[in-house]
Amino acid sequence: MLRLTELKLPLDHTEPELRTAILRRLDIPEPALLGYTVFRRGVDARRKSMIHLIYTVDADLQNEAAVLARLAGDRHVLPAPDIAYHPVAQAPAGMTRRPVVIGTGPCGLFAALILAQMGFRPIILDRGKRVRERTRDTWALWRRGVLNPESNVQFGEGGAGTFSDGKLYSQIKDPAYRGRKVLTEFVKAGAPPEILYVSKPHIGTFRLVTMVEAIRKNIEALGGEYRFASKVVDIEIDEAVGKRRVRGVRLESGEFIASEHVVLAVGHSARDTFEMLQDRGVHIEPKPFSIGFRIEHPQSLIDRARYGARAGDKILGAADYKLVHHCANGRSVYSFCMCPGGTVVAAASEPGRVVTNGMSQYSRNERNANAGIVVGITPEDYPGGALAGIAFQRHWEEQAFIAGGGTYAAPAQVVGDFLAGRASTALGSVLPSYRPGVRPTDLSTCLPDYAIAAIREALPAFDRQIPGFAMADAVLTGVETRTSSPIRIRRDDTLQSLNTPGLFPAGEGAGYAGGILSAGVDGIRIAEAVALNMIGRAPVAMGRGALEAPLIY
Predict the structure, then answer these.
(1) Is the CB of residue 71 less than 8 Å from the CB of residue 22?
(2) CB under 8 Å to 477, separation ≥6 — which residues?
(3) Residue 303 carries which DSSP code?
(4) Beta-bridge mates of residue 325
(5) pLDDT tens, 283-312?
(6) Mean pLDDT along residues 19-26
(7) Helices 271-279 and 388-403, interaxial angle, to 10°?
(8) I want to staple 40 with a disulfide (CB 3.0 to 4.6 A). Which of 27, 56, 205, 329 is the partner?
(9) Cα 219 from Cα 504, distance rounded (Å)
């Protein structure tokens, strides 16, 4: 097949018009085009008066070689690459050793799935509950202010990504098309097929719940074993022969599970696990992350700013945005995890602390748009060792809990008051979506002074890009502290811990991903590394690669 890129058509085009565009690009008659598949569809909204769809398609032709030779030099017509996923190994018949996967978020989910598909029958552990049970616990916090520290937005089947916008795009380099494997498995599990080709695919919380269940059943059918409410409190390390090596994990119940191959995919909020790893001498480093607030606007304001007269067009859907501003104080402020037509949600996992996140359903039809407006920080901002970032996060989450009244209500402030430096005593036309509720106050007590100053400078700058962004009634809700992990568990070229062979740090919690798709891709890479190690083969150029860098949504 041939891959054609940069095919531009109007929003209201018909299917025959796309076919005609393919024929014109290739300069071939109708019978020569045997069929085509849309690989990617994006939106070009740079000119609001003339919004277009941009296609990449794979076309099946008669006399393909002749057409390709005739169009040699055209960078928009090339042979279509092989995008199928090819397993790197297969478990030998009769293998009794089993890998352990800790965590059932996107990274752990795909590590377990790939291991199961290769025949390694993983044991999958999660401190939380099955996805429907944790959904009930999560709603208990949102509706009644009752927090379950082991079953919430952060912990349980599906991980933090279950209660999010379900974004399925990232900034990673993915030459092996592992991301395509993630999307393909999601479609098999019930996701809409469009996620395979739209430029910014998303799923939404309700669909993610059923998909996570479907993938679990698939893993179990392939010999994998799930164990929920199974909190790992220790990773036992054999040092008897002078070289550290993982020999298994111990659960809170006291049970020991032997395994020399342990995937650590615990997410960015498993703070007690990070403390245990440090106690066991596992190499951990602090890393940059970001802190800030959630901001809410009417979704209609964002739609008009992005799409003009075409706002509300069904094919465009709810508009998103991506903003960044470099401040006079040297800080950078940017929008994070923007959720069109969504809600701000309570994401606390520890008593006495308030954390916010964003979520939306597949329809994205709630009245407000929300996004994190966050400030980048580095370990220089929180000196004190590998886990100092956790103490830093906890401090500001506790300040938000106090400012919100101590009931898991969140502190909130309208933008007009925030920019004027005065406390809010009431809200305006934008109704905050956070549950169990908000308390109007002064948010300057909830973040460091440099972060407050940076956000105050950034909001008017963002208003110049999206008119109305700094509207007086827009609502800021605090705090957003879990943008990414505050640590990195450094790994070598075989994707094992630098100083603890057998331990495979993975995903967002270990500092190697930033969102559902990149976490799933990292889970696949880890599964490949584990499989090759278990059968005694050298790794296939795993390397550190693009996933070593800090990632944002």
Answers:
(1) no
(2) 293, 294, 295, 296, 344, 356, 410, 411, 412, 432, 434, 438
(3) H
(4) 333
(5) 999 999 999 999 999 999 999 999 999 999
(6) 97
(7) 150
(8) 56
(9) 20
